[in-house]
Write a structure and sequence with these properties.
With about 425 residues, the protein is an alpha+beta fold. Among the domains are: about 160 residues, no CATH class; about 55 residues. Helices cover about 50% and strands about 15% of the residues. The chain has 22 helices and 14 strands. It has a four-stranded mixed β-sheet, with helices on one face. A two-stranded antiparallel ribbon has the order 5-6. The protein has a two-stranded antiparallel ribbon with strand order 7-8. A hairpin with a 4-residue loop joins strand 2 and strand 3. The longest helix has 16 residues. It is globular, with a radius of gyration of 28 Å.
Length: about 425
């Protein structure tokens, strides 16, 4: 109902009814009891492509206590009004009867929507105590719909922000996934910071706000503002790994900051930042694929700045990486946010058009089997030799198996 009142096309529909779960299961042929004990049944509609259309049908209910700060200990099936009163925010507490064409608004959601206000239903502290993930959800909803937080709701979030870590890492990560890929993600991050939620879940970001950018004599801003500017420039719908890596790309700077008369220095901050990014990904229990991509992007976010001067072997290895398009997006956004040239990005993009897959990542000229055939036993020298041959191949100094074997024999001879 909320989306339609805003003139938006809803992504999905949820149905609330006085029918009990067993009644819903009797009425529909294909159902899944996703939360029958809480009055929720998922109804499967026709198949579109390889997926069934799904609609969650929930029985009107009121909740008892929330001893774990996540889900009710028990529910009592009730009336539409009682159901609305137990929900999180007024704009989410409205019902629409499609048969009668009537809006049922027991909590003032329509007025708050028109006023562009996000207000918790009833006592904000009680709503957030019931499910502390609502602290984060408030920021995501306010960001998505460009709402202002109602003062009592805002005050409750600030007071209760330190309790957010009791929520599971997976649920926190899912809220961050949705927030960071939204076009207004910079506003959402500022809200997270101002409400104390960054301190609760991403404390590594806090030193950014006080770290100056530019020369000491005439600073041009602080690192937090720079990071938000880069976030704005990565596009309206970035992959989550890119958005997360962009947020963390300079997270290592506060750990290594130095100062000369002319400038602040941040030597090796990309390596420190990659380590921190890995720790954060582990803490949020992100997938291994997400973690590896985020860490790689953070570590390489300055790597291509001297692309024109790089050896072909190093450049090709990076340009053939599955995350190269995301890396170039980050490089471009970082440069633009710092008023630097994007020539290195344009150069790399031109190479990607010019070079084929065979140029970037040709089949290796020698393998471990070749080394074994020459009598070399597995060990550290294996990698050293294979890397040396690969580098020569990508640099274009060799192009045939026999030439590669000459390098192998020479390296073996030097090692004995």
């Amino acid at each position: 109902m909320r989306d339609e009142l805003l003139g938006l096309v809803p992504k999905d529909y949820d149905v609330a009814t006085d029918a009990h779960p067993e009644d819903v299961q009797r009425l529909f042929r294909r159902t899944v009891a996703v939360g029958a004990s809480f009055g929720v049944i998922e109804v499967l509609g026709p198949k579109v492509g390889d997926q069934f259309l799904k609609v969650q049908v929930a029985t009107f209910r009121s909740d008892t206590t929330y001893s774990d700060g996540r889900r009710p200990d028990a529910v009592v099936f009730s009336s539409p009004k009682e159901d609305a009163l137990r929900r999180d925010f007024t704009i989410n507490g409205m019902f629409f009867d499609p048969l009668k064409g009537e809006l049922h608004d027991f909590v003032g959601g329509q007025a708050d929507l028109h006023a562009r206000v996000l207000r918790a239903i009833g006592d904000p502290r009680q709503r957030f105590q019931e499910d502390k993930l609502r602290l984060l959800r408030a920021v995501r909803i306010a960001t998505r719909f460009e709402l202002t937080l109602e003062p009592a709701t805002e005050a409750a979030i600030k007071d209760m922000a330190p309790t957010l870590p009791v929520v599971s890492a997976e649920r926190i990560a899912e809220e961050l996934r949705q927030l960071l890929v939204h076009p207004r993600r910079a506003r959402g991050l500022n809200l997270l910071h101002d409400l104390g939620l960054v301190k609760a879940i991403l404390p590594e970001l806090l030193p950014m706000r006080g770290l100056p950018q530019g020369p000491p004599a005439a600073p041009t801003g602080n690192l937090w503002d720079h990071v938000l500017a880069v976030m704005d420039l990565i596009g309206p719908d970035p992959p989550f790994a890119l958005a997360m890596a962009t947020l963390l790309h300079d997270v290592g700077k506060p750990r290594v900051v130095g100062r000369t008369a002319a400038a602040y220095t941040f030597y090796h901050h990309e390596h420190v930042g990659a380590r921190i990014a890995g720790e954060i990904a582990d803490r949020l229990k992100l997938s291994n694929v997400e973690r590896e991509r985020i860490v790689w992007l953070v570590e390489k976010h300055q790597y291509l700045s001297d692309a024109r001067a790089m050896k072909p072997s190093k450049l090709k290895t990076t340009l053939s990486h599955p995350g190269i398009r995301e890396l170039l997006t980050l490089h471009r956004a970082d440069a633009l946010a710092s008023s630097r040239s994007i020539d290195h990005v344009d150069y790399c993009e031109s190479l990607l058009k010019e070079w084929t897959t065979a140029d970037l990542n040709p089949p290796p000229l020698v393998t471990g089997h070749d080394l074994a055939a020459l009598g070399l036993e597995p060990g550290p020298l294996y990698k050293t030799i294979l890397d040396a041959v690969r580098e020569a191949q990508l640099d274009g100094t060799i192009g045939a198996h026999e030439e590669a074997l000459d390098i192998v024999k020479d390296l073996i001879k030097k090692s004995t």
